[in-house]
Amino acid sequence: MAATKKYTGRIVLSFILFFCGAVNVYARTETEAVTQVSTIDALLSGIYDGETTIAQLKKYGNFGIGTFNALDGEMVAVNGEFYQVKPNGLVEKAKHSMKTPFAAVTFFDMDEALELQPGVNFTTFERVMDTAAPTKNIFYAIQITGLFRDIKLRSVPKQQRPYAPLSVILKKQPLFYSKNIRGSIVGFRCPQFIKGLNVPGYHFHFISENAKMGGHVLEFTVEEAMLQIDYTPKFFMLLPGDDEFYKADLTINREEELKKVEK
To answer: Which listed residue, of 24, 45, 141, 160, carries a Cα 20 to 30 Å from 180's Cα?
Structure first.
């Protein structure tokens, strides 16, 4: 185990309202912040179109996850490259002009590295993280790179208006599986108090080493892999400024919907 720096022990929450997509008024290059576009509850309620482009999103991070307008696939960002995972699990590089209704990114800066033992799966990985993480009350950017014995993934097909709720769409989610595949699992562990804004706990996407296959991670088993953790105590939000977001009822408790969506 190696740690390269200490976490600050505090969380900074900042909310930025953007009008007409004026995302250029705010940009961060520090490595200690998660920057998020919109909220998970807005996505769950069917707000699938945003104004933030991939080119703009890159100003806030080189690592992260999300989706694209009209739910057109899963987003994976690693090492500065942004990818779109299509409904069949195949991957394309995301165009700079593409837009996102929901994403979370950071400039990945490893604080700790651990070698994962063969056979570690999603459940046992959570126990590893519980031991490694100094607190449950900050964000962690997480990258697991290596050989995976097996992995279960999904993506989402592009939707047409009028949009159905995400929990309805994912009842017919395309699932795909792979064995003995090299690649990286990327994503975040968010604190429990973030419910309604992001996914409390773990949210992971996958990209294969050759950038040909990916998706939202449902299950995995490690053969040999390295876990890299970035302690991230700051959190910034880029909230939409359009009528759809302004008029949305975001007071509804969508905790049960989120559980169905993430599993």
So the answer is: 141
Could you give the CA distance from residue 205 to residue 178 in angstroms, rounded to a whole number? 14
Q: Quote the CA–CA distance of 6 and 111 in Å, as a whole number.
A: 8
pTM here? 0.90
Taking the mean position of all CA atoms in its chain, how far away is CA 162? 25
- What SS3 class is residue 110? coil
> Which residues face 186 on adjacent strands?
143, 205
Peptide bond into 200 cis (omega under 30): no
CA–CA separation, 79 and 182 (whole Å): 16
Question: CA-to-CA distance for 15 and 39, rounded, in angstroms?
Answer: 11
Q: What is the pLDDT of residues 61-73, one digit of tens each?
A: 999 999 999 999 9
Instruction: Specify the 3-state DSSP secondary structure of 103.
Output: strand
pLDDT bin (cut points 50, 70, 90) of residue 9 is very low
